[in-house]
């Protein structure tokens, strides 16, 4: 297997794929694949419950939070969130730090006409996140949404926005819930879930295969939904049906469960994962900073640990860099089409050896072309 730096769908932990391969045709002597099981069967229910149990354990999710395993991608949540939280009026507020956040704003406006921008990093070209004192909720804010890690720009918050009750105060002192898109950073390290009203993540980076979204929602927020929403969007309905209103993404959910087991047993939990991720990111940023041949524009404290965009000083070399890196077994280093250049995604499943190989390749490429 080659080293895969894809931003999503991302690399999967090799031991998880190996276990899935072993169980693919015959799950633990049952004579069928998990893919072929009824989601209501005893065996599948056990798989689903174990996955939730392991996720709760990894993130120390408090009892008053529900965990939903739903579908439609993180993008669907851009619509589901205002439906679930605007039942008592008000507007969605956003901290805008890049492309994913702007898509969330656009969807809220498309559906409900208004959305407030409580702070934005647009003036600095999304190279540093707004500081806490710059965030101003509108007087009618019903919730605040932000993107913990902007996957395309490689910009990550260095702090949590929510207070110890998972809220933030409006100018009139009323506290509203803080909602976070954690698609590209969930499980990269330990997290205080109580600092959020809701957090959610598309699976295809640190959780498992695409087709699944994990939503973690504080249970009092299940009462704030609009009456006119599609029933499949309803967090309350999903919570009441244990995420099985309809057929869930059963195989992705099962593989997510194997990833959670891998994190717990093989990696040793999220503190250990965080330490590995910190080493990986700092090695790559150090290599970029040590050379004039490569660059990354993001302010030090907001450099993403998961997605490292970098430019070559001479963009005419981009194609050669991509072709040669692929030949060297370093896959998917092309930057997002809106940004250009390169991007190395260093999600949990990317081993440290992959970063070592990339850094060596970069030095060699510079020697030959610099
Ligand atoms: N939010 C973030 C931070 C992302 O990185 C992505 C996808 O890359 C999305 C949302 C959209 O996810 P999906 O493709 O699951 O809709």
UniProtKB/TrEMBL annotation:
Binding site for L-glutamate: 40
Pfam families registered for this protein in UniProt: Aminotran_5
InterPro entries xrefs: Aminotrans_V_dom, Pser_aminoTfrase, PyrdxlP-dep_Trfase, PyrdxlP-dep_Trfase_major, PyrdxlP-dep_Trfase_small
Catalytic reaction annotation: O-phospho-L-serine + 2-oxoglutarate = 3-phosphooxypyruvate + L-glutamate; 4-(phosphooxy)-L-threonine + 2-oxoglutarate = (R)-3-hydroxy-2-oxo-4-phosphooxybutanoate + L-glutamate
Keywords: Amino-acid biosynthesis, Aminotransferase, Cytoplasm, Pyridoxal phosphate, Pyridoxine biosynthesis, Serine biosynthesis, Transferase
GO molecular function, one term: O-phospho-L-serine:2-oxoglutarate aminotransferase activity
EC number: 2.6.1.52
Domain spans labelled Aminotransferase class V: 3-358
Co-factor note (free text): Binds 1 pyridoxal phosphate per subunit.
Residues binding pyridoxal 5'-phosphate, per UniProt: 74-75, 100, 151, 181, 204, 246-247
GO BP term, pick one: pyridoxine biosynthetic process
Gene Ontology cellular-component annotations: cytoplasm
Cofactor requirement: pyridoxal 5'-phosphate
Family per record: Belongs to the class-V pyridoxal-phosphate-dependent aminotransferase family. SerC subfamily.
PANTHER family associated with the record: PHOSPHOSERINE AMINOTRANSFERASE (PTHR43247:SF1)
Protein name as annotated: Phosphoserine aminotransferase
Lineage: Bacteria, Pseudomonadati, Pseudomonadota, Gammaproteobacteria, Oceanospirillales
Encoding gene per record: serC
């Amino acid at each position: 297997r080659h080293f895969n730096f894809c931003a999503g769908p991302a690399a999967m932990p090799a031991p998880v794929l190996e276990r899935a391969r072993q169980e693919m045709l015959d799950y633990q002597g049952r004579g069928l694949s998990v893919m072929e099981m009824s989601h209501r069967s005893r065996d599948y229910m056990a798989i689903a419950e174990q996955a939730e149990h392991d996720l709760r354990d990894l993130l120390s999710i408090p009892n008053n939070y529900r965990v939903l395993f739903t579908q439609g991608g993180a993008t669907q949540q851009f619509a589901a969130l205002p439906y679930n939280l605007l039942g008592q009026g008000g507007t969605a507020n956003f901290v805008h730090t890049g492309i994913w956040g702007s898509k969330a704003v656009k969807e809220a406006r498309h559906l409900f006409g208004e959305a407030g921008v409580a702070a934005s990093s647009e003036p600095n070209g999304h190279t540093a996140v707004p500081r806490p004192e710059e965030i101003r909720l509108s007087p009618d804010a019903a919730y605040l949404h932000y993107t913990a890690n902007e996957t395309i720009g490689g910009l990550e918050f260095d702090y949590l926005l929510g207070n110890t009750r998972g809220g933030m105060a409006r100018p009139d002192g009323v506290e509203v819930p803080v909602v976070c898109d954690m698609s590209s950073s969930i499980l990269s390290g330990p997290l205080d879930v109580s600092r959020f009203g809701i957090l959610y993540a598309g699976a295809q980076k640190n959780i498992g295969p695409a087709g699944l979204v994990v939503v973690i929602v504080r249970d009092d927020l299940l009462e704030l939904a609009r009456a006119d929403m599609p029933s499949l969007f309803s967090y309350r309905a999903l919570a009441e049906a244990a995420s099985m209103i309809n057929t869930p993404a059963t195989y992705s959910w099962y593989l997510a469960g194997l990833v959670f087991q891998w994190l717990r047993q093989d990696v040793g939990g999220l503190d250990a994962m965080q330490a590995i991720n910190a080493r990986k990111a700092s090695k790559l940023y150090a290599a970029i900073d040590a050379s004039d041949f490569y660059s990354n524009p993001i302010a030090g404290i907001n450099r993403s640990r998961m997605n490292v965009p970098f430019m070559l000083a001479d963009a005419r070399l981009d194609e050669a860099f991509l072709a040669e890196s692929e030949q060297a077994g370093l896959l998917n280093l092309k930057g997002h089409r809106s940004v250009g250049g390169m991007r190395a995604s260093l999600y949990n499943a990317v081993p440290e050896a992959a970063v070592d190989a990339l850094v060596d390749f970069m030095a060699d490429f510079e020697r030959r072309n610099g």
